[in-house]
Design brief:
Chain A: Its EC number is 7.4.2.9. The complex is a heterodimer of chains A (333) and B (336). By secondary structure, chain A is an alpha/beta fold. Chain A has helices at residues 46-53, 80-86, 98-101, 108-117, 124-137, 143-147, 156-168, 186-203, 214-220, 238-243, 248-255, 295-299, 315-332; strands spanning 4-15, 18-30, 35-39, 61-70, 73-74, 91-94, 174-178, 206-211, 223-228, 231-237, 305-306, 311-312. Chain A is globular, with a radius of gyration of 22 Å. Chain B starts with a strand and ends with a helix. Classes of the chains: A alpha/beta (333), B alpha/beta (336).
């Protein structure tokens, strides 16, 4: 059974008197111990998806329809105390900027102890021991000293380690990491990636990684979900998507990477940019930027088909598959 | 033969740290002395930027790359050392003398949301530098200059009266580039111009920068921590660590045969799409603070190959057979 299953999730935002759809019919599943990445440009709805899983969408946004089930329990219908149980204990989140997540006027120790004690009834001393043990497990040197320090006394990489320690305190089943390494240097990024991988493997935690960096994604995730303008456009095993992307948007994202072009040559850019919420085009939302767009793409929304590599929503892929199938039929005749 | 455009020699910059007056007092050899702590952002940088090339400066946070850019632009004065533009020394110029060079050197900043004035329209943003540096032009002539300029960076001139918030991040960065190009400079410093942008938008801005370089024979100093961009875009690469250049090489040489242990670690840390089997070289610990100037090599604390000489003696840049320059005792002695 799936640990987390999201089906036909629609999240809307009330903005300037309009009801705008940020997520449209998003469905995916996450199994125990699985590492899944959500990829897309800014504005694709990746973070909104992350937030809505723990029901953190605040006004003017709301979950319009669809279901999010954790162990078959519906998160969208939970009461506040029930949600409190889920947040932190079952599903924990890591955000992009560690300085924004940590409280600058409390010591690291105070924040860790508070997190433990708000979920379990144990003494301060026991909580402190757990906190120090977890700080140690994320490879922070001299955790006893760090325990009494304030966030500003730590470097960016160290702060992100503290956040990861906080997440580990309650042994959650799922970690949602929203761009966890974007604010860090490459060398520190490599260390944090390794740390996340080790933690997930050792504790069989599931990881939902939200990122725009395909290099990071290929290091961490087993499965990748590509999002565009609030919809999932492609989903499949990470390595296969990277080696043989099906959707034109995924192809564009991969081709735009500098390592895909010869040094000194022009990069292959995707023309245009992601449409804002109130200007989403009809049909396939990617058609204004797609080099293969046809009239059908401009009018209808493509459904999902299995291309053999991944599940993809694109008429071109669909046509190619039916073409090859009919060729095959002719050969049989 | 490449002609040098900018020569930087023995450049140092130290900032006074903002300690309280009380904590500045120390007891030193039985006497009470007042000593201000200093942050050494640049520790003797020597670099030559050649005409028409793209020199990329890479390094981690706090290695002094942005300070280097600001000193070159004259936004902060260096503590020691010299900067020459062609044949003229340009550090320590006063504002009036520097004005001539301000026109020839321009800068593009990291965050296009912060570097464009939110209360000025695109037209105002671009017309200000043009009118300032060309006071003889009439308002109409200024506008005639702005239209093709905007078109060349892919912004419709009809959007001239819009404010920055009406544009996306990529468009704003292109407007910043147009502003830098508006005074027809020879040299552009770009300080992390892509890090606030998405991959696909990065490609747009990078392509535009390459086109402009070809059109106007521009020289770029490109500051970044994204090594994938460097590999694609740079002519030469300077790797900086704690205020010093530790390796300088042509892009091809650097990426095929990195020599300095720090460069090797940096390159191995890039998350790549193809080979996920190679483990990144782990550097021990974090970047140390620059409060105290270290004796010996700046990289000693994190270097796996450090020996007593590295703790005692600061390595100089030594030219290698393949024309790269490396500041490392281990490379020099052939231990690595």
């Amino acid at each position: 059974m799936n640990l987390l299953s999201v089906s036909n999730l629609n999240v809307n935002f009330h903005l300037k008197g309009q009801d705008l759809a940020a997520l449209i019919d998003v469905s995916f599943t996450l199994n125990r111990g699985e590492r899944v990445a959500i990829v897309g440009e800014s504005g694709a709805g990746k973070s909104v998806l992350g937030f809505s899983i723990v029901n953190l969408i605040d006004k003017p946004g709301y979950i319009k329809s669809g279901s999010i089930k954790l162990d078959n329990k519906e998160i969208t219908k939970m009461t506040r105390p029930q949600l409190q149980e889920v947040r932190g204990k079952r599903i924990a989140m890591i955000f992009q900027d560690p300085m924004m997540t940590l409280n600058p006027v409390l010591t690291i120790g105070a924040q860790l102890v508070e997190a433990i004690r708000s979920h379990t009834r144990i003494s301060f001393k026991d909580a402190k021991n757990i906190a120090i043990e977890k700080l140690h497990s994320v490879q922070i040197a001299s955790p006893e000293k760090r325990f009494h320090q304030y966030p500003h006394e730590l470097s960016g990489g160290m702060r992100q380690r503290v956040i990861i320690a906080t997440v580990l305190l309650l042994n959650p089943d799922i970690i949602i990491a929203d761009e966890p390494t974007t604010a860090l240097d490459v060398t520190i990024q490599a260390e944090i990636i390794q740390l996340l991988l080790d933690i997930c493997r050792n504790n069989s935690m599931a990881l939902l990684l939200i990122s725009h960096d395909l290099g990071v994604v290929s290091r961490i995730a087993e499965r990748t979900i590509v999002m565009y303008a609030g919809r999932v456009v492609e989903e499949g095993p990470t390595l296969e998507i990277i080696n043989d992307p099906q959707h034109p948007y995924t192809q564009g994202l991969l081709n735009a990477l500098p390592q895909m072009a010869l040094p000194g040559q022009r990069l292959n850019q995707i023309v245009g940019s992601m449409p804002p919420l109130n200007e989403r085009p009809t049909g396939c939302a990617f058609h204004p930027r797609c080099p293969y767009a046809t009239d059908q793409c401009r009018q209808q929304q493509p459904g999902f088909i299995n291309s053999g590599v991944s599940t993809v929503a694109c008429f071109m892929v669909e046509d190619m598959l039916t073409d090859t199938n009919s060729d095959y039929d002719e050969e049989i005749d | 033969m490449a002609t040098p455009l900018i020569q930087i020699s023995h450049l140092e910059k130290a900032f006074a740290s903002n300690q309280s007056w009380f904590s500045q007092w120390r007891i030193d050899r039985g006497k009470l002395r007042r000593k201000k702590d200093k942050v050494h952002a640049l520790n003797g940088v020597n670099l030559t930027i050649n005409q028409g090339e793209t020199l990329c400066v890479v390094g981690e946070t706090g290695c002094g790359k942005s300070t280097l850019a600001r000193v070159l632009m004259g936004l902060t004065a260096p503590s020691k050392g010299e900067v020459h533009y062609q044949d003229q020394r340009i550090d320590h110029l006063n504002d009036r003398q520097r004005m001539l060079f301000r026109r020839r050197m321009q800068m593009v900043f990291q965050n296009p949301y912060a570097s464009l004035n939110p209360r000025m329209t695109v037209y105002q943003t671009l017309s200000e530098p043009i009118a300032f540096h060309n006071p003889q032009l009439s308002a109409k002539q200024v506008e005639e200059k702005i239209r093709p300029l905007l078109e060349s960076v892919g912004i419709a001139p009809s959007n001239m009266d819009h404010y920055p918030h009406e544009f996306s991040g990529g468009q704003r960065q292109r407007i910043s580039l147009a502003r830098a190009l508006s005074v027809e400079p020879d040299f552009i410093i770009a300080d992390e111009p892509l890090s606030a942008l998405d991959v696909s938008v990065q490609a747009q801005v990078l392509n535009l920068m390459m086109d402009k370089q070809e059109e106007h024979n521009l020289t770029y100093l490109f500051i970044t921590h994204d090594l994938a961009v460097v590999e694609h875009f740079a002519t030469r690469v300077a790797v900086m660590y704690l205020g010093r250049v530790c390796e300088l090489a042509s892009t091809k040489t650097l990426f095929s045969a990195p020599k300095h242990p720090y460069t090797q670690a940096l390159l191995s840390a890039i998350p790549r799409l193809d080979n996920n089997t190679t483990q990144p070289i782990r550097l021990m610990g974090e970047v140390p603070t620059q409060m105290d100037k270290p004796i010996g090599c700046v990289f000693q604390a994190r270097c796996p190959y450090a020996n007593p000489r590295c703790y005692a003696e600061s390595p100089d840049m030594i030219r290698q057979p393949d024309n790269s320059s490396v500041a490392c005792h281990a490379v020099d002695e052939g231990r690595l």
